[in-house]
Structure formats: structure tokens, C-alpha cells
Structure to design on (384 residues):
């Protein structure tokens, strides 16, 4: 099988795996054990990883809080800030194309009496700055905007939105789960208060992530998980040393490899796009310039995405139709771009990664082209 679903998850890089193993076996200590060498070794490993993660995003290691992944980070950032600052206001801003872990967290806050503005995006998936600016009110306490969209790969102008938030005294949270190792991030200069990170989108293990919480300016949040007071009280629970070491190493490699990874991905993505655009009635979803090079999202008109996936069983990609949930709703992200139900249903997300080869791309072009042509021949609507 050919794996072109790196935005869903990535394999653990072998170099990362090698670093993780000892922390599951001989070095099994609890990083919170302060009275013996087992604990000291684990704590040191955790702090090295904290520096590695901080260094990919230009943060201070003390600004990194370990979590179980970006879902938890998004929950902690949004609920934590909303609850801590609720005396100041109860209005939040987010965007219709955010990940479910942001949208559903905001919906939960709505049930708790907060008011949410759900921003539309433009046809290319990007936020209109004026629309964002107009949504800010005196009682707005937080805005949450993703850096890179998971379905269409578009990159929002975080610097500009964050600058406005700083001016207006609005806490700015950014979900960067899909951005690490793809977009250069320097929080020393980027006006972002909190940033959600995940390891498994960047060749690290699943089940580990982090939340960046700014110290300058200092951002205060309520904890969601209470207990032993780990992570400066922001997230209790025994730290999973092996996972943390894996995330640190993965981010360290991402920092070293970002240029080369991006260049290769772009070359392969362009080849894939050129190959598939030879078919008629193929449409690109999302802006092609403000976009990570790993992502290609196409709608194949007159073809049902699910049927296309069935026709290319040995190719692992995602479809904009049913896959992300049990429902048959088309992708809400593509709907937010104003795509018709038909085009949203006929979309496929290809995501390229570090281990994708040219042969794989060429094979996928061939398989998709054959499958699309066959399905269209069977379609009563296709008449070309
Ligand atoms: N945010 C975005 C943009 C994502 O793509 C994902 C991945 O599914 C998440 C959050 C959730 O991350 P995790 O799997 O680490 O909880």
C-alpha cells in the first residue's frame, strides 16, 4: 500500500524510536522522583526534550506544558483561558474551518454561558482580516485560529491577526498541530499567547503533545486536570518520559530537516498535481500560495469520494466525505469555502511526507486517473 495520509498521522521516525526505547526499559524512573538517580535521569531527559520542543518554535522551555496531544492542548488553552478570564468578558472568536477539537471545545463553552463568534473564511480558505477585526468586541477575551489547516493545508496570517489581538488585549491561541516542521515558527517575535502542538503529525509518537503558554506577556489559565501539581499546576499527571523524549527528538529532527523536507514535498506535490490535473473537471480546494507544500486537496467532479477511495484501496488518502465521522456529512471545511455538497463529497486530501517517493506519486497518479475515468463512465451525470 501507498501512504499519502501524513496529515492524519506520520510514522515514528526510526531515529526517534531509537531514542525512546531506553526510557521504556532500563530508564524507567518517574521524572517527579526527586530522591534518587532513576528520577533524576528521567527528569533530565524530560527537560532536554522541553528545550528541543521550545527551540523549534522559538520559545523558552519554561513556556512548554506537556499534554496528551493537540486535542488536549486546544481544550486546555481555550477552556483554561476562558474560565480564568471570564470576569473580564465572555466572548470568544474562532473560525468555521478549525479542527473539531477547537470547535467542540467552543461549543461546550457556549453551553457554559460564553458567546462564540464563528468566522467565515474566503473561498480560498483564508481569513479576511477586516472580518476578523470587526468581530473583536470590548468583552472579547480570546481568539483561536489555526496556523495550518488539516484538510486544505492553507496557512493563516497569524502575525497580522496576533498583532491586532495584542493591541486589543485579546488572548490569541493558535493550533499549530499541522504546522510544525513545515512552517518556520518564531514565538520570540510572533504575537501568540498560546500554541497547541502534537508529536504524531511530525514523526513523533501518538499520545503526546504540548501547549506553549507565553510568559512574556504572562498568560494565565485554569487547569483542566488536577492532581500532583505537575507542569506548574497547569497539567497534573506523571509525565510519560518515553513519549516526551520522542517528541523532543522528532521536533529536533524537524528543525534540522524542515528545508529539505519542504523542498522534496513541494516537488512531489507539484508532480502529483500536474499528473491529476490532466483529468477534466478537477478542482483545487484552498489557496495554492499560502499553503504547506505537503498538502493537495482536489475535488473530482462527478465522482463520489467514497467510491474513489474504494477504487484505490491500496492507496491511503482521506476523502472529504464521510471519513472523519460516522455521519455522511460532507467536509465542513470545504463547505465553509462555499464548495457545493457534490464537490465536497468528491474531494480527496493527499498529504505527502518524509518517506514518500517519486515512484509512489507516479503510481498514485495512474491509479486515481484510471479509477476516476471508470467511475465517470458509470455515472449518469457524466457527459463528456
Ligand atoms: N488540530 C489539528 C489541526 C489537527 O490536524 C489535529 C489532528 O488530528 C489535532 C488538532 C488533534 O491532535 P491530536 O491527535 O494530537 O490530539
Amino acid at each position: 500500500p501507498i501512504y499519502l495520509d501524513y496529515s492524519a498521522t506520520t510514522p515514528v521516525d526510526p531515529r526517534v524510536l531509537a531514542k525512546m526505547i531506553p526510557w521504556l526499559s532500563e530508564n524507567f524512573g518517574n521524572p517527579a522522583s526527586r530522591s534518587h538517580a532513576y528520577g533524576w535521569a528521567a527528569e533530565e531527559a524530560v527537560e532536554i526534550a522541553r528545550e528541543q520542543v521550545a527551540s523549534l518554535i522559538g520559545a523558552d522551555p519554561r513556556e512548554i506544558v506537556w499534554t496528551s496531544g493537540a486535542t488536549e492542548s486546544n481544550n486546555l488553552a481555550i477552556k483554561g483561558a476562558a474560565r480564568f478570564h471570564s470576569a473580564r468578558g465572555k466572548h470568544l472568536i474562532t473560525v468555521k474551518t478549525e479542527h473539531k477539537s477547537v470547535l467542540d471545545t467552543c461549543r461546550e463553552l457556549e453551553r457554559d454561558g460564553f458567546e462564540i463568534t464563528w468566522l467565515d473564511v474566503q473561498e480560498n480558505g483564508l481569513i479576511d482580516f477586516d472580518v476578523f477585526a470587526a468581530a473583536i468586541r470590548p468583552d472579547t477575551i480570546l481568539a483561536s485560529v489555526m496556523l495550518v489547516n488539516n484538510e486544505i493545508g492553507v496557512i493563516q496570517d497569524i502575525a497580522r491577526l496576533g498583532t491586532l489581538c495584542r493591541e486589543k488585549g485579546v488572548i490569541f491561541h493558535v493550533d499549530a498541530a499541522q504546522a510544525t516542521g513545515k512552517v518556520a515558527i518564531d514565538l520570540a517575535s510572533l504575537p501568540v499567547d498560546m500554541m497547541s502542538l502534537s508529536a504524531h503529525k511530525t514523526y513523533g509518537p501518538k499520545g503526546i503533545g504540548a501547549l506553549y503558554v507565553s510568559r512574556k506577556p504572562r498568560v494565565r489559565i485554569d487547569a483542566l486536570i488536577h492532581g500532583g501539581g505537575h507542569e506548574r499546576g497547569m497539567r497534573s499527571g506523571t509525565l510519560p518520559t518515553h513519549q516526551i523524549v520522542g517528541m523532543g527528538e522528532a521536533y529536533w529532527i524537524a528543525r534540522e530537516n524542515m528545508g529539505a523536507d519542504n523542498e522534496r514535498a513541494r516537488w512531489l506535490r507539484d508532480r502529483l498535481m500536474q499528473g491529476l490535473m490532466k483529468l477534466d473537471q478537477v478542482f483545487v480546494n484552498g489557496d495554492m500560495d499560502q499553503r504547506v507544500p505537503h498538502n493537495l486537496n482536489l475535488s473530482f467532479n462527478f465522482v463520489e469520494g467514497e467510491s474513489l477511495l474504494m477504487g484505490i484501496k491500496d492507496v491511503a488518502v482521506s476523502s472529504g466525505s464521510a471519513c472523519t465521522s460516522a455521519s455522511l456529512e460532507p467536509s465542513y471545511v470545504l463547505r465553509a469555502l462555499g464548495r457545493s455538497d457534490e464537490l465536497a463529497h468528491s474531494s480527496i486530501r493527499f498529504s505527502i511526507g518524509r518517506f514518500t517517493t517519486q515512484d509512489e506519486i507516479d503510481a498514485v497518479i495512474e491509479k486515481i486517473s484510471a479509477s476516476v475515468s471508470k467511475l465517470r463512465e458509470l455515472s449518469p451525470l457524466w457527459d463528456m
In short: The chain has two domains: 14-253, 258-378. The longest helix spans residues 241-276. The chain has a mean pLDDT of 95.
